[in-house]
Design goal:
With 161 residues, the chain is mainly alpha-helical. It contains seven helices and four strands; from the N terminus they run αββαββααααα. It has a two-stranded antiparallel ribbon with strand order 1-2. A two-stranded antiparallel sheet has the order 3-4. It is globular, with a radius of gyration of 15 Å.
């Protein structure tokens, strides 16, 4: 973990759209290693969380932000029975803060499912992470390998957390 955090601190640039840009000009979710823009919580921190920016959690590396996103999405199904794209996104990005209809359409189209089709969330996590990252940040710069690492961190020995 220390090596991952050191690597994150040294990397002052990120590749977006095939070009290298300063991390300081990257979207907030990417600067915070929080591609889902998970809001800060009171009490205990997420694994890999290093703090907050006053509104959103900050993670030491993007894998930890992807892990947290994956845990939340799986908990929506396990704890609340939410098993459709429409249900997931309405919970993730409430209509009072977002154009949730457009968000639902974007995610459903990307996954190749109907917005109200029942899905097994864990089976769709890599795709959900990628499209939520793109929707939240305007870009999705992470490799499949990095996304799969974050998802694996969330699903191995998964317990509601």
């Amino acid at each position: 973990m220390k090596a991952v955090m050191t690597l994150a601190a040294v990397a002052a640039f990120i590749i977006l759209g095939g070009r290298k840009i300063a991390l300081s000009t990257a979207p907030r979710g990417l600067r915070n290693n929080n591609p889902g823009n998970i809001r800060e919580t009171t009490g205990s921190l997420w694994n890999g969380q290093t703090g907050t920016d006053g509104q959103f959690a900050i993670f030491g590396a993007p894998e930890y932000g992807i892990r947290a996103m994956s845990k939340l999405l799986m908990n929506y199904q396990a704890l609340y029975g939410i098993d459709t794209v429409r249900g997931l996104i309405n919970r993730w990005a409430p209509p009072n803060e977002n154009d949730t209809g457009a968000y639902v359409g974007h995610v459903a189209e990307s996954l190749g499912v109907h917005p109200d089709q029942t899905i097994e969330v864990a089976e769709h996590l890599p795709g959900l992470v990628a499209v939520i990252t793109r929707h939240e940040n305007g870009v999705q710069p992470y490799s499949d390998e990095l996304i799969n690492t974050g998802v694996a961190m969330a699903t191995e020995g998964y317990e509601n957390a």
